[in-house]
Fold this protein.
Amino acid sequence: MGMPPVVLLHAFPLDSRMWDGVRAELDVITPDLRGSGREPDLDVLARDVVELIEPLGRVILGGCSMGGYVAMAVLRLAPERVAGLVLADTRAGADTDTARATRLAVARRVEAEGLEWLPDAVVPGLLGPEPSADVVAGVRGFVLDQDPVEVAWAQRAMAARRDSAEVLRGADVPALVLVGEHDGLAPPAVGRELAGSLPRSTYVELPGAGHLTPVEAPQAFAAAIRTWWDA
């Protein structure tokens, strides 16, 4: 069985360039998720993705972190378009009150001060314990390249997101859950729980990586997708 088109959705606060290493190994479609000017709701991004994939038929839909949240929203809106699901370093649950308050505070600070402070605040928590200097510099650059309006919008949209556990329990498609060994934001225990909620799941833990597995271990990430689909 040939592999359907693979559509991968990026993490926050990055863009589609985070998939460049995976793109070198696997033919993938990687849109930039942009929502500003519209209601801060991840369904806005999900509808954009549905519009993108409609001409493609059924796709393997994947996402890392925020991209995973959007993939779950797509699954809720248009399950008939999803032939397989790849969820990396993400979780099904809605934010806790504390996490929601933190997101809203970040949104307000970004609007007030811009992005210069943000890499120091977020990049160490996104990467594993021994990232290369190139990876660190690349991720910091991605963060600084974003539009502050989009960053604030995405934080508010994620703060408002719904729990997707029920959607995943009803997802009768092959699913791959990928988690970095050192992911401190959506750790392996969360990934295993996520895999357990999916009827047809495979769980893969990538050694040495943190929260941004496609950036830190792109070859292993792409190989995991190929191996999973071939099986």
In short: The chain has one domain: 6-230. The chain is about 50% helix and 15% strand.
